[in-house]
Write a structure and sequence with these properties.
single chain; alpha/beta; L-fuculose-1-phosphate Aldolase; 4 domains; seven-stranded mixed β-sheet; 26 helices; 18 strands
């Protein structure tokens, strides 16, 4: 590991202590082997004047919820040193009291809540304090002889701290260790917390940071020697996307909510999953106690081809683990957060794509570190009870409750065709707004950029071609774990031609796009939708299927046949609990098809103004693309949970249809 310090970059953050603290904190945060997703914390002590001009000693400590990689000045909470030292001297203190007193000791009530390690940062008698959960420190200290290995690696440069619960107890433990010592005179450069992490400190930001890098590097070299330079095992994945969808659905059932499943089928992930004994050492515990909040104590391991049985046994084992250690807490769901899957790799699971991505990062680092630790003498993380205490610690649980309320389609995966504009885009947008991860397929080359506007993924696909459609479906399952909602919307409206004048190519093209492409999509996507979570297929039809007009034979016939396709699909898929419905829009004029000139021509044909023409339904209301989008999102949701084979008009009332 190398120092990333750059004097010119550091100067750009300001030469004051807090500016330097921001810069070096970001350097720590850039190292994924040091901290992941909000892990670690840093601080700086400074002498300032309060509002009344009185001198005050402060400890600026990382605020809860901030990530070191992107932290700013506003991410540090200013806490009075006097209060921190008084708290450190107390014999006991509850977690709730600690949080209250830390906030009461802040000079800026708008600042974030200080890290739970604020007291510990305060008692360390140096200006700058850096704390990480470095992988190498975990591999070094999660061992039966962890303390001895630390001494072998670092000698007298560090103090070894036995594992104790983070927060007040840890601060109190370290305060007792150091309050009667002169760390500067003794040449103490850091603290190694067994099975937890590393602290370094100095009176300037650069020295504290570079000591951190140096000590972690020493640990890496020590482990390399102990392991004989062992390299990670690699293997080629045996892909089975239907089994991935099956696994995702089973985990969602245990969790009680839809989940995103991210497959890591890299050579390193598959090699780790294939290791003999991985079901033992791979499930002994997390790299650090903090990770248990994201990943639970251990991952699940798939035994052979028994996906459902393996996950059921995991859930039973988790319930037993809870019963062994609970003291009146309410059990969390028994679903794993990541899965070790021999021959397949690692699967990380989350209620959102962001959550699954975070778990995936942790799982990747866990696999690499555990493999190294085993090769370097054995992996022995914290006992169950200690992990349970963190997993069910009120302060950590509070972090999980801070998120926004669940959205209707959160954790679901939606595949939408023909969504570069108009009704299709409105459908994709409504699904995304309600929490779905949307993958949009369209022949428009701008579809990747268009879908990115709503947080989705766009794939350029000609839906009349078999292989590109299959590739898009496979990509979706590979990236997110399955498909729950399919909106088959792609279509064209050919120019008006009477039957005696219509060219055969116009008819054939309309039927190919408006009907056959939908059948091709169903043929390829249905096996995955059967394994979806609360699965739903929605076709976008048209008023024309019931009330055709002259000159629209190809369009009207294709939409009538599409409606029949929907009805057959509803009959076939009902036993699999897949709902299939169709929405019939009419007179949706806010699309690219309807230019101002086209609207004016049509209005003139009816002897109406444009506004009268746009509201020429029984309710005299304008139908917009977003109305269709919202209806489709509702049809895919719980309101229509027991509805299949239905035809829903969104047209303001059409007298010919009625």
């Amino acid at each position: 590991m190398e120092s990333l310090w750059n004097d010119q970059e550091a100067a750009a953050f300001g030469t004051d202590p807090l500016g330097q603290r921001v810069y070096s904190s970001r350097l720590l945060g850039q190292h994924a082997d040091l901290v992941l997703h909000g892990g670690g914390n840093t601080s700086v002590k400074a002498e300032e004047k309060d509002f009344f001009g009185e001198p005050v000693s402060l400890c600026y400590v990382k605020g809860s919820g901030w990530d070191l990689a992107t932290i700013e000045r506003a991410g540090f909470a200013p806490v009075k040193m006097e209060a921190l030292m008084k708290m450190a001297a107390l014999e006991t203190m509850t977690d709730a009291d600690m949080v209250t007193q830390l906030r009461a000791a802040m000079t800026d009530p708008a600042a974030p809540t200080p890290s739970i390690e604020a007291i510990l940062h305060g008692v360390i008698p140096f200006a700058f304090v850096d704390h990480s959960h470095a992988n190498a420190i975990s591999a070094l200290t999660c061992h039966a002889d962890g303390a001895d290995r630390v001494q072998q690696c670092f000698g007298s440069r560090v103090l070894v701290v036995p594992y104790v619960m983070p927060g007040f107890i840890l601060a109190q433990t370290i305060w007792e260790m150091i309050k009667d010592r002169d760390l500067r005179a003794e040449g103490i450069e850091g603290l190694v917390l067994l099975k937890h992490g590393l602290f370094t400190f100095a009176d300037d930001a650069k020295t504290s940071y570079e000591k951190h890098i140096e000590l972690v590097t020493l640990a890496e070299k020590f482990l390399a020697e102990q392991s004989g330079g062992a390299s990670p095992v690699e293997a080629v994945a045996e892909e089975n996307l239907l089994e991935l969808a099956q696994l995702r659905r089973a985990v969602a059932g245990l969790r009680g909510t839809p989940v995103i499943a991210k497959l890591d089928a890299s050579a390193a992930a598959v090699g780790y999953a294939n290791l003999p004994g991985v079901a033992d050492f791979g499930t002994r515990g997390p790299l650090t106690p903090d990770h248990s909040i994201r990943t639970k104590r251990a991952p699940a391991v798939i035994e052979g081809d028994d996906i459902d049985g393996s996950l059921s046994r995991y859930a039973a084992a988790y319930a037993a683990y809870f019963d062994r250690h609970q003291k009146g807490e309410t059990m969390l769901d028994a679903a794993p957060r990541f899965v070790i899957w021999p021959r397949r790799g690692l699967v990380s699971l989350g209620g959102t794509v962001a959550e699954a991505d975070i778990v995936a990062d942790i799982a990747q680092h866990t696999a690499a570190t555990v493999q190294l630790a085993e090769a370097a003498g054995g992996w022995e993380p914290l006992p169950e009870q200690d992990i349970f205490d963190i997993e069910y610690w009120e302060l950590e649980q509070a972090k999980l409750r801070k998120g926004p309320a669940r959205k209707v389609h959160q954790g679901k995966v939606a595949l939408v065709t023909g969504c570069a504009a108009g009704i299709g885009f409105a459908i994709a947008e409504s699904l995304a707004e309600q929490g779905a991860q949307v993958v949009g397929l369209d022949i428009d080359k701008e579809i990747p950029e268009i879908m990115s506007r709503i947080g989705g993924i766009g794939i350029v696909v000609n839906l009349t071609e078999d292989e590109p459609v299959q590739q898009a479906i496979d990509f979706t399952v590979r990236r997110f774990g399955g498909i729950d909602i399919v909106v088959s919307n792609a279509g064209i409206f050919p120019k008006n031609e009477f039957l005696g004048e219509m060219t055969q190519s116009d008819w054939d093209r309309t039927i190919a796009i408006n009907l056959t492409s939908h059948q091709k999509l169903m043929n390829k996507v249905v096996p995955f939708v059967k394994l979806g979570i609360e699965p739903s297929i929605i076709f976008v039809g048209s008023r024309n299927f019931k009330a055709p007009g002259p000159g629209a034979a190809a369009y009207s016939c294709s939409k009538a046949a599409l409606t029949q396709l929907c009805r057959v699909a509803a009959l076939e898929l009902a036993p699999h609990k897949v709902r299939v419905n169709v929405v019939h829009p009419d007179a949706v004029f806010d699309t690219k098809l309807w230019t101002p000139e086209a609207l004016q021509r049509s209005a003139d044909r009816y002897g109406m103004t444009v506004e009268e023409y746009k509201t020429k339904n029984l309710m005299k209301v304008e139908i917009k693309s977003k109305d269709i989008g919202n209806m489709v999102a509702a049809m895919a949701g719980p309101l229509f949970a027991k509805v299949t084979g239905a035809q829903i008009p969104v047209d303001g009332g059409n007298d010919r249809v009625i």
